[in-house]
Amino acid sequence: MNLNYYNTFILVAEDSSANYGEIPNIKRAKKTIGEIQFELLYRNDYKYTQEEVLFETHMRHKEIPESERAAEKEAFFAKSQACMRTSPLGKKYGWGLHFNEDGYVKLVAVESDEYQDFANQKDLTITRAMKSKR
Q: Could you report the per-residue pLDDT of 6-55, keeping only the tens digit for each?
C-alpha cells in the first residue's frame, strides 16, 4: 500500500486562524502528534515521505520500543491511515506541506513567499488540509 503524495502541495486548512507557521508547543509531558511531526519535518526538507512521517509519529506518540518496530510497522500499515491532510501542522499551526516528485515532504510556512510560489504552481496537485470544524 502506498500512502505517499507526489508533486503535491497541501495548503493550510480553510478554517485555520494561523497567519504564520507556528511551532507547536503544548508543554505537556507527552508530546502531541503536531509536536512530533514538526520535530521530524522542521529543517529536514525532503528527508521523509508521508508514510515515514505517519509511522514514525505513531512510534513516538505511542512510545513503542524500537525492538517492536518491524512488527508494529506491519500492523500499522495493515489498517487504513489518515493522511497528512489531517495533520495539526496544516489544520492549526500554519504549515503547508510540499511533496516533491519522489514523495518526500517539506514544511512551508503560510506567510512565506515560497508558500505562495507552491500554491500557484500549475504543475503541482494543490489540495487543502482538512477543516477542523465540519
A: 999 999 999 999 999 999 987 888 899 999 999 999 999 999 999 999 99
Does the model's pTM come out above 0.85? yes
Q: How far does Cα 9 stand from its chain's mean position?
A: 11
CB 21: neighbour CB atoms within 10 A? 20
Alpha-carbon span 94 to 107, nearest angstrom: 10
Task: Give the DSSP letter string of 75-87.
Answer: HHHHS----GGG-
Residue extents of the structural domains in the chain: 8-128
> CB-hemisphere CA count at 13 Å for 100?
10
Residue 123 carries which side chain, given as an amino acid letter?
A: D
Asked whether the beta carbons of 131 and 15 are under 8 A apart, the reply is: yes
The cell numbers describing 67, all together, are 525492538
